[in-house]
Amino acid sequence: MKKIFLNTFLILASLQLCAQDLLDILDIEAPEIDNTVSATFKGTRIVNGHSIENRKDKELEFIISHRFGRINTGFEELFGLDQSNIRFSFEYGLTDNLTGGLGRSSFEKTYDGYLKYSLLKQKTGANSFPFAVSLFGSIAAKSQKAIAGNERTFTESLFYVGQVLIAKKVNSSFSMQLTPTYVHRNLTAIDADPHDIFALGFGTRVKLSKRVSLNAEYYQQFDKLESIDARNSLAFGVDIETGGHVFQIILSNAITMVEKSFITETTGNFFGGDIHLGFNLSRTF
Amino acid sequence: MKAIYTLFICLFLVAFTNAQERFLTKNGMISFFSKSPIENIKAENNQVLSIVDISKGQMAIAILMKSFMFEKALMQEHFNENYVESDKYPKATFKGNILDFDKITGSETTITIKGNLTIHGVTKEITIEALTKKTAAHIEMAGDFFINLADFDVKIPSIVKNNISEKIKVSFRFQHKPYKK
What we know:
The complex is a heterodimer of chains A (285) and B (181). With 285 residues, chain A is mainly beta. Chain A has one domain (34-276): monomeric porin ompg (Porin, Beta Barrel), CATH 2.40.160.40. Chain A has helices spanning 2-18, 22-29, 259-264, and strands spanning 60-70, 84-93, 98-105, 110-120, 132-142, 158-171, 174-185, 196-207, 212-221, 233-242, 245-252, 276-284. In chain A, 36% of the residues are buried. Chain B is of the alpha+beta class and 181 residues long. Chain B has one domain (22-178): Lipocalin, CATH 2.40.128. Chain B is built from two helices and nine strands, in the order H-E-E-E-E-H-E-E-E-E-E. The interface between A and B is large, with 33 and 43 residues.
């Protein structure tokens, strides 16, 4: 009797083997896959500052960014719409991990160039890594003519910025970034102004729907310029994605869009109403 | 003792029949094409897993959504992030029966496959036709069919309605090789 049971069991067991689901076999045979986390942020900017996102290999992006004047200037200035600062830029993926950009802002007629390199990527699964790290470096050159008596050389018009971008996509709707920043200016307005300023940026994104996200960004400075009433930059943005475009609507206490400016030269008091409405419009080719 | 014999015979048979009747590929090709007045979108996946059991006429396919390669990287990102939500639904699968599997022979014939296709977490029964041919070394299968995005709960926002077709043409080509465990 015992034997019959055993027999039946063994036969059933082997039949079970025969009847193994074909999809299960595919699961076993599936190769290891690359689990790099993508789309931590929608755009290459969180609001004003860079995100860890790069342009892909040979991809060209044209960005028009715009900031109006302060909202609290009232009706006469049409709440800041009379005044504006505009930046055009071309950004290009030299490789999947290295993006370069050239831009020009109307504010102080500033030219800027940058390189951003993706050093480490966030990964899930077998070779998981908890966050992503990118390196960023930029040079900005002020080309606006100086007032008579204050002429400067080309070298004196240069500014350098170095950033380490550390970002984590916590889940599909929430991402955050820490951005230690170093800004150097060759020429300061007065002797009391520091040549070197360190700052720490905080950025975050919350997805409201599949194509709309809310972003916030804050840069805490550890030194400040003395010649102006320098404040920390605070900005909020809404990203709207429409196919090949990412459209960002921005509220910021800075009118400028290059790192050296909005991080160290912001004077607006956000909660006092010194808010600049702006947008970033990007088109990828 | 008898039981152990039975087990051995059974296992042997299992191993034997498996080697003979299951055919697998790990680099099958599936592509899709969306035709619209504004732009055509094409993506190709060359890492599709497909298995055929010709003794029972069964077939299964597993498709990793992130392995679809697009012409533009941004399209690929949007496809994964907004349309098929690859983080939530990493795989599309198909499991079905080849209705006339006895027709799989040395000459090229058309067979009908009926089964369940799961994309974006939604399962729908489909019937597809495929051209097939069996040689000593492999079983080839190729064909195409249309799917409606709405059937799989993939929504197209109104702003890009003219860029993406509701009906997507899916093409496939598999070259299964004998599968041994």
